Structure to design on (356 residues):
């Protein structure tokens, strides 16, 4: 069997020693050497200054057999496609024959899981192993509030909290409505939560476009969010703002889509993850309201003009000059001079069906 590094030799004879060399470019650590045999393990960290230092660990046979099995699995199943050579795994049998495999550090997947297991076993958070010991997202907390204005008093209409936690391998979803209806779901997903968080960058949620200064604030109320992110090495980030397309981080839609897909599979859905909520754009004061209205009987979609900022996807409305009830498919905001249709010929929305 052949890969990018040449012929892959199957392991032969009884393995007496295995050595893993790991190195990380652009780091103060030049190389780490992890050597295992059936009596003890030796870890040596080779730095630029000082030139070297080492630690020895007594290694019980069951633990040795476990890690040896994982390292053999790496040797027998891993095939590197790139030309990078950041780690080298060398087995030596009783006859002194050497069997070697090498490849690139991988921040996620099977190699990363084995690396985490070895670090945990030795209680050493500094080991490079197969993934370079990257910082990872360990916990994400999402908070959402919808507030309504009643007689100059702000009241929380609904709130939602989602916590994604690597330590417990769980996702907790909590919803409150007027503090009367409270729903809590706890989804335990061993391995799946870690894999999900592995795909989230420690630099996630860093860029927010932001709303223009003249944005129109809905007098009926507003929606806010708060995102808290914690990493393996203790980094913490907090992002908050108005819950709309420009107020949310630019990478929010991709993150929300993946999380919603995961939760929906297990029968849990979140309002904060609904694209009809986070794709909304707040209107600027010099923009007009255009609604695309669908009429089932004719099968046509007509762009209409609305006089109030109260319409959203799914609303059933009456339109001037049309007897049939229409349903709003989408809402757009455009300045008068950028109107997508002629304002002299456009039809106006008269109101929601519930208003008549």
């Amino acid at each position: 069997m052949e890969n990018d590094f040449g012929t892959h030799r199957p392991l032969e004879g009884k393995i007496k020693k295995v050595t893993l060399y790991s190195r990380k470019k652009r780091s103060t650590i030049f190389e780490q050497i992890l050597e295992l045999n059936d009596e003890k393990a030796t870890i040596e960290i080779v730095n630029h200054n000082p030139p070297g230092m080492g630690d020895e660990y007594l290694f019980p046979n069951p633990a040795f057999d476990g890690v040896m099995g994982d390292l053999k699995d790496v040797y027998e199943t891993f095939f590197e496609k790139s030309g990078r050579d950041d780690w080298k795994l060398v087995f030596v049998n009783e006859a002194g024959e050497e069997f070697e495999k090498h490849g690139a550090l991988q921040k996620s997947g099977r190699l990363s899981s084995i690396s985490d297991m070895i670090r945990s076993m030795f209680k050493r958070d500094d080991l490079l192993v197969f993934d370079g010991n990257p910082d990872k997202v360990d916990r994400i907390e999402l908070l959402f509030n919808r507030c309504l204005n009643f007689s100059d008093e702000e009241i929380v209409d609904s709130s939602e909290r989602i916590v994604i936690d690597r330590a417990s391998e769980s996702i907790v979803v909590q919803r409150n409505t007027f503090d009367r209806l409270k729903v809590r779901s706890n989804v335990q997903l061993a391995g799946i939560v870690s894999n999900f968080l592995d795909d989230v960058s420690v630099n996630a949620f860093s860029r927010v476009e932001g709303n223009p200064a003249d944005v129109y604030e809905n007098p009926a109320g507003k929606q806010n969010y708060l995102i808290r992110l914690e990493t393996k090495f203790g980094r913490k980030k907090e992002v908050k703002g108005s819950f709309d397309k420009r107020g949310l981080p630019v990478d929010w839609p991709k993150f929300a889509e993946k999380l919603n897909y995961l939760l929906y599979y297990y029968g849990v859905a979140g309002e904060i993850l609904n694209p009809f909520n986070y794709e909304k754009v707040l209107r600027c004061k010099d923009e007009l309201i255009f609604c695309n209205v669908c009429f089932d009987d004719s099968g046509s979609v007509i762009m209409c003009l609305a006089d109030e900022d109260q319409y959203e996807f799914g609303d059933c409305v009456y339109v001037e000059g049309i007897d049939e009830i229409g349903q709003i498919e989408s809402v757009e905001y455009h300045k008068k001079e950028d109107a997508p249709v002629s304002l002299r010929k456009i039809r106006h929305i008269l109101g929601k069906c519930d208003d008549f």
In short: The longest strand covers residues 137-150. The radius of gyration is 29 Å. Helices lie at 61-77, 110-122, 192-198, 252-265, 275-278.
